[in-house]
Amino acid sequence: MPEQTDSLLEEALQALEAASDAAALQVWRTGYLGRKGQVSELMKLISTLPKEERPAFGQAANELKRTLETAFEARQEALAREELAGELAAEGLDVTLPGRPIGPGHLHITTQTLRQNYAIFAEMGFQVYESPDVETDELNFGLLNMPPHHPARDMWDTFWISDEIVLRTHTSPGQIRVMRERHPEPIRVILPGKCYRYEQITARSEHQFYQVEGLAVGHGITMTDLIGTLTEFARRLYGPERRIRIRGSYFPFTEPSIEADMDCILCLGEGCRVCKQSGWLEIGGAGMVHPVVLQNGGYDPEEWSGFAFGLGVERPAMLKYEIDDIRLFYGNDLRFLRQF
Ligand code: PHE
Known about the structure:
Blueprint: H1 2-18, H2 22-33, H3 38-44, H4 54-91, H5 109-123, E1 127-128, E2 134-136, H6 137-140, E3 165-167, H7 173-182, E4 187-196, E5 208-218, H8 223-238, E6 244-251, E7 254-263, E8 280-289, H9 291-296, E9 305-312, H10 314-321, H11 334-337
This protein binds phenylalanine (PHE).
Phenylalanine is lined by residues 170, 172, 213, 251, 254, 285-287, 308-310.
């Protein structure tokens, strides 16, 4: 009875098309393909038919069942797709749009400045040696010839972690670490790194900043070597016409101690706002390594001598690029960082 299967097929497909959500689909499935559904009912009619009609009817009914099952699966998938599309549309998300490109980053201005320093000192034979940011009181002060209660400690406003542990106030404790590791070999290293001081943060001073420490220990090293090294550094970084000026100073770990200035790169010594009309810019403290410090590092001061210096990193960069606020270095503002 093909008419019967045909009409059931037509009716079922129409109903399937009308089912527009998962619940309606299930109702349809039970109604047509379920154990007591219309297709099963139709099949039961087989036994009421004359024998010769049975095979054809059976075949038609089976075909109907398969067709409806396939149609059901297709409709189910179509509905799922529609539902997903609806959800995405509701989220306002167009998955076909190309992704937003992530631009390549670049080095922070401090890193760039540090690397310029490394390159120059490398050409002069200095290795880079890194030492920890968190130091003992003994290395930061004591072994640098500043026993507890030494008044010179007042030169550094210190973050104390505990009675014995500090955030290093300068890179000089690295001097002791290198000497203890390398003695009795000659030394020529720079010690770059971040230092911390308990200071009011202003446009001119931060509580964190970088220094590049330098240390040379050998036989017959003199102040002339120190001045020559600083002059060469300034000339390679700021131009071959640079001049260096030396002033007497005091640090407990150097003797004699000096302060080194370079003629102002903006006014070339004429005097301007940046150099406060002096014509000179401070580049760092330095001196000949104090005999007590050499000894603390394991070197006999009768046989060995050395020089050390501590250069700033951010301030010279501020001068070079005319940056008027040191806080910008740590503000993570891309509008600032992208300029370099
Ligand atoms: N550590 C000193 C400071 O931070 C600078 C310095 C380094 C001076 C090495 C002399 C020798 O002020």
